[in-house]
Amino acid sequence: MIRRLTSSYRRGSTITESAVVVPILLFLILAILVGGYGVFRYQQIALLAREGVRYASVHGGQYQQETGNPAATPQDVYNNAIVPYAINLDLSQLNYQVTWNTDNNTYHFGLDSNNNPDYAKVINNTVTVTVSYNWFPEVFLIGPLVLSSSATMPMSY
Q1: Whose CB among 109, 127, 128, 131 lies 3.0–4.6 Å from 49's, allowing a Cys bridge?
Q2: For the chain, what is the domain count?
Q3: Is 24 part of any domain?
Q4: Which residues, 6 or more positions from 54, have their beta carbon under 8 angstroms from its beta carbon?
Q5: Tens digit of pLDDT per residue, the chain (157 long)?
């Protein structure tokens, strides 16, 4: 019976293979975690845009007429709808923009051929809120990313 010593020439192979595989595996795990955190941050920005447009939509000109309270301004949208939901975000890196297609009333009338209001052509006004955030990934594998989301909704009260 011949006995072979197979382990004598493979004594350091486990450490060598581990030295190659473990850093790659750790990098992939870290990249997946940072990528998941980036998706989470994007979902937060999308939520801010949706909440902002919802607030602006229901606090327009008709809201002012019926309640006597002032209509929402872009600063009101920021203070009442964006900031309360901006949890764990650096507000100095957060930018927002609120735009109405014509004004903040529920609707406006189209024009006839003489540029007079045509009361048969009722056009619903919309509001758009765009929120962007400069996100610096926690591991600094890549530079800052701008996460941006926009939401549009018809004016209603």
Answers
A1: 131
A2: 1
A3: yes
A4: 81, 153
A5: 666 655 556 667 888 888 899 999 999 998 899 889 999 999 999 999 999 999 999 998 888 888 999 999 999 999 999 999 999 999 999 999 999 988 777 766 677 777 777 767 777 889 999 999 999 887 766 778 999 999 999 988 7
Beta carbons within 8 Å of 109's beta carbon, 6+ residues apart? 117, 118, 119, 121, 122, 123
Residue 62 lies in a domain: yes
Tokens linked to 107: 């609707």
In a domain, 102, yes or no: yes
Establish if 50 belongs to a structural domain.
Answer: yes
d(CA 43, CA 21): 33
Can you tell me which residue has the tokens 């941050």? Answer: 41
Closest CA to 84 of 47, 125, 135, 40: 47
Q: Nearest Cα to 59, choosing from 42, 45, 46, 73?
A: 73
Of 80, 82, 122, 124, give the one whose Cα is nearest residue 103.
124
Cβ count near 30 (within 10 Å): 13
Q: What is the pLDDT of residue 22?
A: 94
Tell me the residue range of the domain where 106 lies: 12-154
Token pair in block for residue 94: 């957060």
